[in-house]
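If you are new to this repository, start here. Below is one unmodified record pulled from the training split, so you can see the exact layout before writing a loader.
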Amino acid sequence: MTTPHPTTPPPALHQPGRPRLLVLRALGLGDLLTAVPALRALRRAHPGHTLVLAAPARLAEAAAATAAVDHLLPAHAPGRAVPTTLHWTGPPPDLAVDLHGNGPPSHLLLHALGPRRLYAYAHPATPHLTGPAWQHDEHERDRWCRLLQWYGHRADPADLHLTPPDEPSPAPGAIVIHPGADAPARRWPPHRFATVARTLHHAGHRVVLTAGAGEGPLAHRIAHEAGLPATAVLGGTTDLPFSRLAALVAHARAVLVGDTGLAHLATALNTPSVLLFGPVAPRLWGPPDSPRHHVLWHPGPGEAARPGDAHGPTPDPRLLRITCQEVLTALDRLPAPHPAAEPVP
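And here is the target side for that same chain:
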């Protein structure tokens, strides 16, 4: 897969004679990984098409790792908004697929390109587009597979695993801790991460902290409090390149992370993980049932699947109910990782 310059349409947009399939999913890493089953279903159903994914340019490597995407068309918007435009050139897409959301902004963005066919969920504000009914209480992987099934394509929500990269891990066998998240509502308190990291370090485990762009100060603060060297922090000024991050996770002893993209990467690579959930229920965004992935979540009596604001300014109460001892116990009970040479199922 070629990685285009953010302002230059990829070469696939200029290839004559081959129909093009455009998928809109201009969100983050976790969003891309939950859409892998749907992307692969589209790849199987349309083997002769060039499949173009409209997504942030930084996801080009991750998109290539899905083995479903031919080219990436850079597209992004602040937060979880819909891009205002797509830099599409040449004839209209043969098929456009809205895997971004359920509403007029994403529907109309694709409709404006004049595709011969458009797959999307039905919405009262776009009655000219037919599709299945949106369900709020549905897992993200199931949601997009159900959309394609409605249009007659076989889609398997369990088809989510990635092949580990050939690149060597920067910290083989380490316990990887990722303390960051896009919003404070999904960030477990730093001093609790530090307590867990310090306990693991004193028990003889190698511990590394990963940090996305701008998360360096948080990760270094936790490392310092845990008694770890500064070299235990990977990333922070910028995001780790996807291949390096995937190699780190693929060869880790375990991953400790909140409800973020790295949680989905651990699931995709079948790496043992402990996942900390707060405002959103794991049945909507969590991993498949597996002893390799231990989910911690403490809803109160009668709380719904979406009891809190996933983008709120303070840690969610359900997240704060998770204790350090719970996390350490869950990590201790995880099965051993697969040997490096063993293929992911």
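Two things worth knowing about this chain: The longest helix spans residues 190-202. The radius of gyration is 20 Å.
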